[in-house]
Write the structure tokens for this entry.
Amino acid sequence: MKYLALLLLAGCELFVDVPAATLAPADASDDGVHTECVLSPDCTMPGRPVCQANVCRGCLVDAECPGSNVCLADGSCADPARVLYAAQTGTGSACSEAAPCAFDQAVAAVTTTANVVKLAPGTYDRPAQLAITKDMIVTGEGATFHGAAMTPATLMFDITSVGVTFMRVHFDLNGMFGAECVMNGQLHLDRVVITNGVAGAYSSACTFSIDRSLIDAVSLYGLYLINSTVTVTNTFVTNSGATSQGGLVLDGSTGVVEHVTLSGDTAAMAGGQAIRCTDGNVAIRSSIVFGNGAPAIEDACLVGHSVIDPGYAGAGTGNVQMDPLFVAPATHDYHIQVGSPAAGLADPGSQLAHDYDGDPRPNPAGSMADSGADEIP
């Protein structure tokens, strides 16, 4: 299937970013063998609930959190009291794990103390826009929001002046817009897949972040980030923007774009086909911008330590204009192969500890990280 390689990898949880200082040292009396735990119940620190090889670590998947069946982004297991459970055919009233409710009902039931909506695997049709008006986390391994609007280009989710995180979900937009954040809200996308729509995500005067995610085959733009504080990391933005703005638009925003791969992006409008910038206030580094329409990058963008298409004349340094050796771009697999010029090219200040797949970055430890969303295994 068109997206099979990346979709499968998007659900692959291999590592979490656990500060080294939180790891227990070996007991001096046990000849260097860790005996921090024997079973997971021995692990009492919130961010390290799982026992592996006698050492506590963060959770990787929901199944490692038997109490709530929710593994949070920081590697901790959600308190069951925080979780509202939803299912595709949910009819319960209390949104409990035993009797889940419908997704919209769970969203409406969110409180300041019960603010995690857990989706059971399945397809959730979205026939109309949903305004989210409370702070919450929406997570669901194996869950897909499917566009089912009768009116073309309907927005799926509106976030206004609140903070919302989507984790581990697939947005099959089917002609809809994805998520929009406005008026000082916060929108965080973590290990999501967005495909087959009009636009991925829009942020205006918000705090926006996306990590370990894929945006592919959306027609207007992948990400449009205006007057926002942005963090875009470990993400693929591919084959997008053909009828309008291209892959990534940065308009009056500040922040960082790093370890991102943009390829196959084109735009009907003049200017950068992959990345458009009104200024250089977002640092774009350690990335791959290759195989896009020309010109791929507007000269106002500040791009460094990246593999890029020919034609960029901006102020960035440390770039190379060479084929990054994607695995199989014809089938939308934009991982890189051994021998890629992206290997070891990342900015020396790169501190991301993992890549799109959750593989450790850099590899091997102590080396320089690879540019782009993928670290060569």
Notes: Helices lie at 4-10, 103-109.
